[in-house]
Write a structure and sequence with these properties.
The complex is a heterodimer of chains A (830) and B (775). Chain A is mainly beta and 830 residues long. Chain A is built from 8 helices and 57 strands. Among the domains of chain A are: 155-298, Methylamine Dehydrogenase, Chain H (7 Propeller); 340-378 and 388-405 and 420-440. In chain A, the strands form 14 sheets. Chain A has a 5-stranded mixed sheet, with no helix packed on it. In chain A, a hairpin with an 8-residue loop joins strand 21 and strand 22. The longest helix of chain A is centred in the C-terminal third of the chain and has 22 residues, at 798-819. Chain B has a 5-stranded mixed sheet with strand order 39-1-5-57-56, covered by helices on one side. A 4-stranded antiparallel sheet of chain B has the order 6-7-8-9, with no helix packed on it. The longest helix of chain B is centred in the first third of the chain and has 11 residues, at 15-25. Chain B starts with a helix and ends in a 12-residue tail after the last helix. The relative contact order of chain B is 0.16. The chains are: A mainly beta (830), B mainly beta (775).
Amino acid sequence: MVEEESIRVVHCGGSELNFRRAVFSADSKYIFCVSGDFVKVYSTATEECVHILHGHRNLVTGIQLNPNNPLQLYSCSFDGTIKLWDYLDGILIKTFIVGHKLHALFTLAHAEDSVFVITNKEKPDVFQLVSVKLPKSSSQEIEAKELSFVLDYINQSPKCIAFGNEGEYVAAVRDFYLSVYFFKKKTTSRFTLSSSRNKKHSKNNFTCVACHPKEDCIASGHMDGKIRLWRNFDDDKKYTYTCLHWHHDMVMDLAFSVTGTSLLSGGRECVLVEWRDAAEKNKEFLPRLGSTIEHISVSPAGDLFCTSHSDNKIIVIHRNLDASAVIQGLVKDRSIFTGLMIDPRTKALVLNGKPGHLQFYSLQSDKQLYNLDIIQQEYINDDGLIQIELTKAAFGCYGNWLATVEQRQEKETELELQMKLWMYNKKTQGFVLNTKISMPHDDHITALCFCNAEKSEIPTLVTASKDGYFKVWILTDDSDIYKKAVGWTCDFVGSYHKYQATNCCFSEDGSLLAVSFEEIVTIWDSETWELKCTFCQRAGKIRHLCFGKFTCSKYLLGGTEDGILCCWNLLSCTLEWSTKLNIRVMEPDPYSENFAAVSQSSEGSDLFVFKPSEPRPLYIQKNISREEVQWGVFVPRDVPELFSSEAHQWLNRSQFYFLTKSQSLLTFSTKSPEEKLTPTSKQLLTEESLPTTPFYFILGKHRQQQDEKLNETLENELVQLPLTENIPAVNELLHTPAHVLPSASFLCSMFINSLLLSKETKSAEEIPDDVDMEEEKESDDSDEENDFTEKAQVTSDPGLEEDIIHQLSKSEEKELRKLRKVDYSWIAAL
Amino acid sequence: MAAAERGAARPTGDNRTSRRRRRRREHCLRTSGLEPGAFPGQSLRARAHVGLGRREASSGAGGRPAAVSRGRGVGRRCENRVPRGAACWGPTPRRARQFLCPEASGDYFEDPGRKGKGWRRPRALFRLTLLARPVKAECSVLYFWVSNLEGMGEFKVHRVRFFNYVPPGIRCVAYNNQSNRLAVSRTDGTVEIYNLSANYFQEKFFPGHESRATEALCWAEGQRLFSAGLNGEILEYDLQALNVKYALDAFGGPIWSMTASPSGSQLLVGCEDGSVKLFQITPDNIQFERNFDRQKSRILSLSWHPSATHIAAGSIDYISVFDVKSGSAVRKMIVDRQYMGVSKRKCIVWGVAFLSDGTVISVDSAGKVQFWDSATGTLVKSHLISNADVQSIAVADQEDSFVVGTAEGTIFHFQLVSVTSNSSEKQWVRTKPFQHHTHDVRAVAHSPTALISGGTDTHLVIRPLMEKVEVKNYDAALRKITFPHRCLISCSKKKQLLLFQFAHHLELWRLGSTAATGKNGDTLPLSKNADHLLHLKTKGPENIICSCISPCGSWIAYSTVSRVFLYRLNYEHDNINLKRVSKMPAFLRSALQIMFSEDSKKLFVASNQGSLHIFQLLEGSFKHLHTFQPQSGTVEAMCLLAVSPDGNWLAASGTSAGVHVYNVKHLKLHCTVPAYNFPVTALAIAPITNNLVIAHSDQQPLPNDKTLLYNPLPPTNESDVFRRRTAHAFKISKIYKPLLFMDLLDERTLVAVERPLDDIIAQLPPPIKKKKFGT
């Protein structure tokens, strides 16, 4: 039984990874990025999240490595604290309490006991750069109140501050001026560009600044796409600058490489530009990065760069400008039209992703699974361009079908509509476009739904449109002499007094279709497409429409714009009950009769959980979010929880997730965030500390395949993977140089023997014969791999057997060495 | 020949060019009114001297002229942007109260001072007294000095755009630090001397020669100017007498480069045959000393090490370093031909510069600026700055900055900046690019305070370095000099003829006329188009120095370096008879300025020996009347003349000495106006009063920027006091394109010769195409 706690609203991942510049560890193995209230530690090689450092109670605003100990990390937050972490173990070492809202953090190598932060001490929009002395103390929580002021009236963004030449000066830019403060001389030089008031159309506002690591050179990025390299700035008169101009839109971020030989810049063009030797003619490009580059950072070792993008991703880039890894969070930079959906197969959250894409986002692992390109057109990132928008999507038939609607409206009368139907292909494990219908309706499509009844033999889709019609689309045979195929065609067009169709919904068994036409709900028989009855409440247009489930399947729920929630009894065709509730989101739980409704009031949003059969709600939580809740969805749990209290029972089988207007994804939980770490991610922690051998990479590939298989079979139990690296025989084999290795026949025997060991605990008969045969047929020459997979399947529970393997393998190895002389060629013959 | 015919005879380009030509040919008559404008804050200084006979006027202690008072309210020193050239007096000067600007059509009109209010139509009639062309051609500002406020009226303005003058492109620029002068040579062999301290005034010029294509220009031994060219000759110029002192063949084929040693006593030339020749400069000649090791291909650039022990020579594909003592090549540095990874044609080293620390900077045709260590012969650093050739380099004397010019019209500034503030290590950094040219920048120079560049697009651009400028004022602004600071046009008022002077021919045009009248600002249709009457080609390779047409229109005189020509014109309806007056006296070899008296009876010739000749013109012949010999000891040439309208007085001015005034009746020197420390740019003698007006090149704005300029008010309905308070002597018009000439034909007609810069650019070869973003 789970301990009963009050239900809290918690952030559940999907937070911004691109809020600040990412930071590399000293050895470039890890990359740190702020993510909401946490700091996430990713492996640069595997893209996996290794640690989540939590401890801050508000948004983390800055992270920097401790210059004196590169295994430690400083972070600062809006909660007014600076925390020092051991990121390898994920341990909070110290907390320094500053007390003011901290907006950014900078560390310097020579200033050993102080860091620099941006605060707004007095006025809310006047920002200052101050240096904070971190007192030395053994206690965990230390007050750091010794602040010394450095620069005033600076820009809030840390991109506009840069420390140069081992901390001799700090450069800050804001609007049209660059100020440079020299710590030794304690003087400030200020250089002003002619502002846009003086010159027409000149947008030379400063946007970012970077300092050369070796030379006295400041690079500044500007709104008009120019980069200026300032030199001689210690002299107010003799200062000089040169311009580099490639970007056509504002320069979002700049970074010098570690040696200073090249300058990296990025912006709206989605191209990373490397300026070598600060020369205009000598530049390299890494194009097609997908979306606006927000931040650029460089690893201290100099071998990696990384760019943070506006679509919430971090790309790790090699020194030779090859993108090597992509850390993708929930894409959030655009408005969500499709709402939240759950892919019935992967249980992934599905919503609008990159432009023209649907993203499949795993809530469990808090990472993006994949993107499905719906629009399949090159995205041109330009201001004022009207793009094709993916507006609606729906899954049907247990995830076998996906319907999408895309539209583009340049003018009032020029509407381009397209509906696409995608079939799930089991072989490729993805959706394949099946039918493309251009202009399915003459006006905007307001709703589409599949008939998800178990017994329905023909997949059916209903679309409702503002043009006053709803259309029923069915799957028909589209075979010709060349191939067998299926396709979708329109089966029925219905309308009701030319009213705009606003919603549609199938009943649970698929026998009834409810279509709302503005204020009127019509019920249609799905066999004959006859109008059965109408309900009219005259309380504004119907905004939500949904049939009840299970025991409540005789009820139809409707929410109207005027704030009335109605429940009709379909058997008696009467209004069962109605209540005044201004509903923004109404979602049915797929595994119970429950409905969740979120209402909007001036104070905030409230959650109501109710059953259609009872007018009294099961659970009410007031003020779940201050913002407007835009979308919500019930996500089935992997493992059902057992809450005994009645108020918590609605969370037993599913969890309710919702998305607010500022696109933060929230859910309800009773557990503390630490407990939310799933066993898989915990195991990843242990594995991350293992040496990366070649074998490890092979293993990694197999694990990914297995993960997919797992998802496919929807098995909830976790298959733990064997720790083959601990077998000495394998270790020796892989770590011995190739030229001293014995012949393959010896290796083969060694392998087989080492594998035999594990069979002592589990009977050898468990290996399915057919798998064995298949694998041998597939590839005889790659013995190692085959053996390994075999083992991977066999040792399904290594946690228990680890000790045995260790003990036995040592003695076994001795035996093996003796046996080397013995001819085992007969094994190869098998 | 008629204008239309001439236009058709020219090779026609694409549609745009021909349209441009048509526009240029258009000759419109427009009525004009008077419009006040803002005073821009600069003008040439005009000194009004008291009339002849009252000579004490300007003998103040500092040589500054006293104010002149003539009539009512003229007692102010009048400021005028008057360059050298024709200045003329209008007929009835009574009061100098207003500057006038003739307004043509509204399309060019912009009055910054009265934005939004529209402009008030002036009602007063102004008579023009002094008229001048602006020096600063690109801003088309016109200043008039107006004498009469009474009466109402308008001007008819001939806007002439058929003067098809294209200045030759700039080939070399040499800056002399001692005298702060700049020598500029053009592609036709003309050499011009600009005085940078005198407000960039072009004070001297040496006319070009067809066979002398100047390739190199340098100052040596203080202020001696040498040039060398593709005819293989080294020339020295006499800066006093304004002629070529001598020409000496270097016997190495065409000369591509020349440089004077740091001490100025030796001259080094690089020749086509790969030889580098050393000449010793003697007080009145140069003497060949020896040859250096001969190279395989032509020497395109040369540079001395400041200690004069080594020289660097840029050739094709390599740079050689010579030891001056032994004359042998000690280093050979091969320049990379690669251009963006592709092997291009041969890499021409267009310029080298030897720095005192042994660094050689080279610029080449692959667009690179490279730094070499001459001690080891290794490449230290390379900057790829252009897709086209980098054609010129100039290093500052302090060796802390240099400038290069590219074929794309960009000049780049490089500066030596310290790597970090606390270390002594310094590095060369490319700083600002300047794009003031459309075509190749063939030559650059680096004065202590400015970057100077010139090229095929004929502009001389002087870009001050803001960090070196003490006070940010007009002097610190960018200068673009396109047109020569002398008069190329003369006008016959009676016959309404214009004589245009080109390098090798003269063109005579008759102005069109109109019968139509219109409102102020209207464009009047021409009833008769302008006629091209005469095309007079010179014989021989020499350029025309000066030309003049008599006010009656029946005499034309012009001069080359070797001869003065005089022609008699006879008009018979539409036919013209041209008869050359032969037997010019032998002593009259060349003239710097020619002028006819108002009644066309006398001809005044300023010759380059410094003497002034007066000839009596008779029907078909002439008679030498008198020669004013230069004062003893001076050989300075007279290059400005002014004749009083009554023909009794002649004023002449040299480049630096004072203005001499001669009595023509008595044929004797009347007086000499003391020299002012800025050169004279224009002279004029007022009619009736016989006041001499002198304009100097220093630009002290007399009505300063804050002075309010008033509209001329209607004289009738306001009190006289109020009128006097609000009336102002200065009016500015900004409606014109760059003006080359302006004169008053009669009391109500003006002629203005415009030369839009676009038309010049259209006649140049197309510039290197550059990709522009978004096109």
